[in-house]
Amino acid sequence: MYFCYDCRLSLPGVFTPHVKLPCDVDIIKHPSEKNSKSSAIHCKIVAPEQTRVMHMRYCMISQIPDVNYKLQVLVFPSPSAISVEEYVRTKGPIKRIVVLDCTWFQVHMMQKLPQIQGLPCVSLSKYRTAFWRPQHNVDESGLATIEAIYYALREYQEYGLKKPYEGEFDDLLYWFFLSKQHVDKKQEEYHRKVETNKTEESSET
Question: Are 47 and 34 in contact (CB under 8 A)?
Fold first, then answer.
């Protein structure tokens, strides 16, 4: 373990990068979304001053984004969603993005949260996920939460602020890809073990 899932801090002596984001991030967690499986908390670890994590079930209404708060958007592909570029062009800059931390099957429940009703929605361009836990009936464009945060911020900087992206917050994905490397290594070891067992069984027959 490299960091505490619940306090969202790296453990003593463990390196973690810190990044400056082009706007703030609010994360609203589904009650069934385990911290140990959540990629969203990586944002809090790497950009703690600009990230708030709120639990859907226990957070106070005052903690959840105010629907009347200007310059705030929900990153979600609703029928009314517009691109980040169009939002900035027609409505102005974004101060904070809001994301829902849940599976694609839980998102319908999250959408009913009263405090986010009325928040303007923005949708992202289509990207291919690098997530290692695919969800049933969700294609490779279904991003992990931290990937959605990263691409939303990148689109805001590139298309909204018209500022070339030069990797300023690539480290937002640091823990995500470190976890992926660990999973890939374990899978490789498993497949190697299976092949070894098959070879040994063949030689015995």
Answer: no
The pLDDT value given to residue 144: 86
pLDDT value for 152: 97
Pairing between strand 121-123 and 82-83? parallel
Residue 97 token pair: 């993005």
Using left for φ > 0, alpha for ψ between -120 and 50, and beta otherwise, residue 113 falls in beta
More confident residue, 139 or 40: 40
Q: Where are the domains of the chain?
A: 3-173
User: Residue 13: left (phi > 0), alpha (psi -120 to 50), or beta?
Assistant: left
CA distance 129 to 148: 9
pLDDT of residue 67: 45
User: Alpha-carbon distance 37 to 5, whole Å?
Assistant: 9
Coil, strand or helix at 190: helix
Interval 179-188 mean pLDDT = 61
Closest CA to 104 of 74, 77, 65, 80: 77
The pLDDT value given to residue 171: 94
Strands 72-75 and 24-29 come out as unpaired
pLDDT score of 10 more than 50: yes
Per DSSP, helices labelled H in 52-173 are 84-91, 107-111, 145-155
**What whole-number distance in Å separates Cα of residue 50 and Cα of residue 44?**
8
